Amino acid sequence: MKITGRTNVVGLIGNPVEHSFSPPMHNAAFRALNLDYVYVTFDVEPSNLKKSIEGAFSLNIKGLNVTIPHKIEVMKYLNDLDEIAQLIGAVNTIDFKNLKGYNTDGIGAIKAIEEVESIKNKNVVIAGAGGASRAISFYIAKYDADKLTILNRNVSKAEKLSCDVSNSQLIDDVSFDSISQIESYLDDADILIDTTPVGMDPHINDEPIVTAENMHEDLVVFDAVYNPNETVLIKQAIKAGARPVYGIKMLLYQGAESFKIWTGVDAPIDIMEDALRKTLNLK
Ligand code: ATR
Fold first, then answer.
1. What does the alpha-carbon distance between residue 209 and residue 203 come to, in Å, rounded to a whole number?
2. Ligand 1 proximity of 195 Cβ (cutoff 6 Å)
3. Probe residue for ligand 1, chosen from 136, 151, 152, 231 as the CB with the greatest number of ligand atoms within 8 Å
4. Predicted local distance difference test score (pLDDT) of residue 14
5. Of all atoms in ligand 1, which is nearest to the CA of residue 134?
6. Is 147 marked active-site?
7. Quick one: how far is CA 122 from the chain centroid?
8. Which residue's CA is minimally distant from atom 2 of ligand 1?
9. 3-class SS letters over the chain
10. Which of 2, 50, 51, 71 is catalytic?
């Protein structure tokens, strides 16, 4: 990639950032479309967050992804928030044209799932009630699911998230329960989303949150964990003849959405996916 006097800078702020898979993914896309952009990372201490946003704006940086630990705090320093990002209460993408914050994590999961099944009118079960579940749950509601059930170990966290999603009035039927009851929800479910870290490297042999015997063949099973590619849950989905959706797809589509926000151009999905697979050492 040739850096010129006109090259536009986008990037990632977080702490840490050095293991990010985003630079190769975005830079491959810029190269493929001949866009004069470069994606770099910035390791920012929490105490420097305000200064770094002001500085990025002053330096005419075009856009930033935001990761742990800044996704919530950063909202204070923006002029505008996308409606769903505001409901989620977290931002992972900033467009410096208008200093506006977005959350493309949730939409990344939706696009990943919609490669195999539309969300509209579906019965969706989501495991976990942390940051990832929150981002995805509001988008499930926005994309017109019929019913959302939030299951968590700590039931009061599932209750709180369920209340927040219900209050958004994006969906009528939202409920919650203990994750220990998951088996009883899957017969009627169309889509299962696992946002827990169960099965994540190095714990690749964890007990999955549910096994093949409790899955039906039409069930879509999405695991947000991308390392390993084939998690214990995805293995169970394959064994059941259900329809697996791999975590890498969420990474891919959250990146593609950010790309579109910054450049105004549709992301070259195949190019980004190839770069991501290479970075993650997948075929
Ligand atoms: P993220 O931002 O990835 O969502 P998080 O906010 O820390 O991370 O949330 C992790 C979620 O995974 C939580 O819902 C957590 O459940 P608790 O609220 O009960 O802690 C869930 N989780 C973590 N480890 C788990 C395990 N071994 N089994 C089931 N759920 C687990």
1. 13
2. yes
3. 152
4. 98
5. 4
6. no
7. 20
8. 131
9. CCCCCCCEEEEEEECCCCCCCHHHHHHHHHHHCCCCEEEEEEECCHHHHHHHHHHHHHCCCCEEEECCCCCCHHHHHCCEECHHHHHHCCCCEEECCCCEEECHHHHHHHHHHHCCCCCCCCEEEEECCCHHHHHHHHHHHHCCCCEEEEEECCHHHHHHHHHHHHHCCCCCEEEEEEHHHCHHHHCCCCEEEECCCCCCCCCCCCCCCCCHHHCCCCCEEEECCCCCCCCHHHHHHHHHCCEEECCHHHHHHHHHHHHHHHHCCCCCHHHHHHHHHHHCCCC
10. 71
Q: What is the pLDDT of residue 2?
A: 86
* CB < 8 Å & 24+ apart, contacts of 158-161: 158/129, 160/129, 161/129, 161/133, 161/134, 161/137
Q: How is the beta sheet containing 37-43 ordered, strand by strand? A: 37-43, 8-14, 63-66, 93-95, 100-102, 80-81
Q: Which amino acid is at 140?
A: I
Q: CA-to-CA distance for 76 and 131, rounded, in angstroms?
A: 18
pLDDT band (50, 70, 90) for residue 218? very high
| Residue to probe by mutation, ligand 1, list 72, 125, 136, 153, most atoms within 8 Å of CB | 153
Average pLDDT over residues 144-162: 98
What pTM does this model have? 0.96
**How far, in Å, is the centroid of ligand 1 from the Cα of 38?**
34
- Sign, Cα dihedral of 158, 164, 167, 172: negative
